[in-house]
Design goal:
Largest sheet: 4 strands, antiparallel
Distance between the termini: 39 Å
Radius of gyration: 17 Å
Oligomer: single chain
Mean pLDDT: 85
Strand content: over 45%
Structural class: mainly beta
Order of helices and strands: EEEEEEEEEEEEEEEE
Number of strands: 16
Number of helices: 0
Length: 196
Amino acid sequence: VDGGATWAPLSSIVGAWLIAIDPQNPATLYAAAGSGILKSIDGGATWTATGPGLPNSYLSQLTVDSASNVYVVGGGQIFRSSNGAASWDALAAGNGSNSFISSLVIDPSDSSRIYALASVLQSNGTQVVVLVRSADAGQTWNTVHDPLLAGASVTNLVISAAAPSVLFATAPNGLHGPALFRSIDGGDSWTTIQTG
């Protein structure tokens, strides 16, 4: 309650590795713990299990958009709940067990616009990282083909809250060492702003 100056335990929740806050209701929290997603509606004092529909696998991403939709990544897929995590629907992005989605960001000014980084296992055993983008809340997806990102082991994606058309991507193990990329047109094109 004081911007992180002091901290206090709120409940007995153990083993949570992801947490997200509903921007429309800061008392509503979601956490990845155990084998699923837990929900709190009292600022973390108590927690309950959420509804069915998620895979029994490691959950790597958790976020809530400006319309209170909850997104979870697990088993190479993106899942969305539009009813407060009472149930979950799988979206079209990802490639099942052959992919790993390392980053998921949502435009804070337009919750229908979603970006994801997917590392897809090829038939020859190599991994290729691709940027996919949706303009309809995950119903359909398009791959962003940019020569600068091709071959760069991009692992993280960040979107600017002040200017949502600006995105940053990091590649800690790129072809020429660590690199930071920027797009100012919603991911259509990218430039390198730092390497090494």
